[in-house]
Amino acid sequence: MTSPRSSAADITARAAALDAADPLRGLRERFLTPDEVVAYLDGNSLGRPLRETPRRVSDFVRDAWGGRLIRGWDEQWMDAPTRVGDRLAEVALGAAAGQTFIGDSTSVLLYKLIRAAIAARPGRREIVVDRDNFPTDRFLVEGIAAECGLDIRWVPSAADAGVRPQDLAPLLGPDTAVVVLSHVAYRSGFLADAAAITAQVHDAGGLMLWDLCHSVGVVSTELDRWSVDLAVGCTYKYLNGGPGSPAFGYVRADLQEELRQPLQGWMGAADPFDMAESYRPAPGIRRFLTGTPSILAMQPMLGMIELIAQAGIPAVRAKSVTLTEFALDLVDEQLVPSGVRLASPRDADRRGSHVTVDHPAFRAVTQRLWDRGVIPDFRPPDGLRIGLSPLSTSFAEVAAGIGAVATALRELG
Ligand SMILES: *Cc1c(COP(=O)(O)O)cnc(C)c1O
Predict the structure, then answer these.
(1) Exposure winner among 53, 128, 166, 374, fewest CB in 10 A?
(2) pLDDT score, position 1
(3) Residue pLDDT, tens place only, 368-401
(4) Distance separating alpha carbons of residues 367 and 374, to the nearest angstrom
(5) Which domains does the chain have, with CATH numbers?
(6) Residues with Cβ within 8 Å of residue 351, at least 6 apart in sequence
(7) Could you give the subunit structure recorded for this chain (predicted)?
(8) pLDDT for 2 beyond 60
(9) Which residue has the CA at smallest separation from atom 11 of ligand 1?
């Protein structure tokens, strides 16, 4: 048996060795890292700003907005939703150009794309969604089902896992209109087999919508190769776009002309400045826009998309796996003996970039940690979520963070 003291030193040394061997370690300097924050373990809820972000935003205000004024729309802003969407698609989604746009919030995009999917599958009466999906996804499905007179088929899944093809199979059939699932589950971090599930939904004649909020920017995603129909995702999590930055939507090229979305505003119309008498959808992906795009709020994500491009998703994913493996080792060594239970997959191939652990004291623990600059988040009923954003999180932070959880548990014990 090693003494607790030497084991703490040993963990620090292991973290230092992992940081020294990390090929992406140099990129951590690109983020704002205030001294008061000991360990930021919630980049999966709100990514850190890049160091360049204040400058990028103020340059935009001064030069683009202040300098070009209304001319900015013609010169560069009208195309920003699809230009930024295409770049994101290329860097992080495995999607060809012309299928991705930056739009409203994820919630609003879910509404638009689920409604469009249902309208494209007339006569099919069921929306399939899992019980453990993020609340907004479930709430929107409930609302849409009520509005359109459809039924919901709820996929059961274990809280510490996620939806597998065999869980879904009994719920699919000739009534399946659309299936809404998260690629990485927000609570457990379970990474779904998107290729297999999409194929399964297509075999039943339904459309597949993937919510990529917790996977975009950290997990290899091949929307085109998987023949995904629809996808949405946040840009303020692993894309570091800042609080409330606009979400992205993806609609497969060959579906675009067939789909009709319900919030038909002028920005999705064929010619917004035609001031036409009635709505005619724009050709292609633009028809999924509604109102004036949030150009100002798109600025911070631009730097992060380029940083991910520089690192490359395979390297980002490799670091994510090493970070979560290290976190699991520390959970087993330091937390499990205090009665903590792992609520995330052990298999790295089925795990995204966060790890959740359960313990009845975690609500109180989280408050204590936040006061000490150690910042994970709490997810009811008793889950502590440790989010590891590969470009900004160090192994030293993981060690400090999990060590602080162990200390707080002892104090509250
Ligand atoms: C974070 C998250 C959302 C957030 O939606 P907003 O409209 O941005 O509030 C939606 N779905 C999932 C799965 C999420 O993780």
Answers:
(1) 166
(2) 44
(3) 999 999 999 999 999 999 999 999 999 999 999 9
(4) 10
(5) 8-49+312-412 (3.90.1150.10), 78-309 (3.40.640.10)
(6) 189, 190, 191, 321, 324, 344, 345
(7) Homodimer.
(8) no
(9) 134
